[in-house]
Amino acid sequence: MSLFGSSGIRRVADQELLYLSVKVGLSLGRKYKSVVIGSDTRSSSESVKFALISGLLAGGCRAYDAGIIPTPTLAFAARDFNAGIMVTASHNPPEYNGLKLWNPDGSAFDITQRNQIDEDIQNNSLTTSVWEKMQQVKYYKEAIEKHMSYILEYFSRSLLDLKVVVDCNCGAASLITPRLLTEMGCEVIAINSYNSSFFPHKIEPVAENLTGLAEIVQASHASLGIAHDGDADRMVAIDRKGRYVPGDKLLAIFARNIKPGKLVTTIDTSMALDELNCKIVRTKVGDAFVSEELKKDGQFGGEPAGSWIFPEISYCPDGIYAAAQLAQICRDYDLTELVDALPSYPIMRGSIKNVSISLEEQERKLRTLNPLLVDKTDGIKLIFKDGWLLIRPSGTEPKVRLTVETKNLTSTEMLYNTAVRMLTEDK
User: Do domains 145-341 and 347-424 have the same CATH topology?
Assistant: First the structure.
């Protein structure tokens, strides 16, 4: 069984994760001469980082500690090294932590690279370098400044009429997003924008966790609100009315601004995207799969959960760059009007814990709904005349994720509730 989920290695921070981090470091230390390491603000991140660095150094690698930085900043920094490793559990609860591995172009480690690490660890074939080739850790303090300077080359610094509320939830984005938007000329109201090991509200940037941000956006008459997850590979938005902007609509707004010839997204995005004037390619869920497809010939891609990939900067989801991109768009357009003008179909997303039946049995049950087509790109997607249903095992948590979209709310609710009932009944 692979150590990797859909977004790196992720699990509860305990002694097993520490031991595993040393082993991952040893595996990489024998193959890469220089590796840059960053971490988010979680209380366990320092211990995991130094366990990882110990393995890297023992393997003969030169390790560069970049300190607390966002994941996209770390991925951008990797261009100056042979690889980059981010210690983070992204949007998972605070008791989790993990490792994300990046190539110099900002793309996540591919299946071949991940399999090599799996093989090294599972076959217990790890050895240290000879003592005279072991390295000392170096420190790399320029990562944030270089990332911010590069982004500023793309965007105007005259957004003087734009008021933005930024909620970093005390994650790694606290170090860069408020500063970046201020440099662009925005009037920034920063909340929860200091580093802390404890998050003021639940870390996943979804509507129910951002009610405080929505209230401040409305009360301050701001043009928009921006929120990140713990490592800032995600960015989501609140409009001036305090409404959470669904990720599918934000994806469409970015696409209409960028005008890509090919838009790469995931299998769980809205069918409303098919009405855009570009080719749509859907991949398995996970930014690594979007990135792999973009490397062929795509100009923009993303996931409705808030991950946006801009190949001009890197193949890592960059919530910092996305924040700048959205601010630039909102200089010329009202976000509320953009959202309201987009086609919209009712979509429900949720998850089911403790599903005991196999994926094959889940498929057998769901096929009794008589779909027109079954797509197995990722999990099981049932396509009907006026909508679709997707179930897939989570790549980061022990649950099954469920998404349903149809052309009217009643049908969406009925199909969603039917799927939940079928997947949770014993027989």
Answer: no
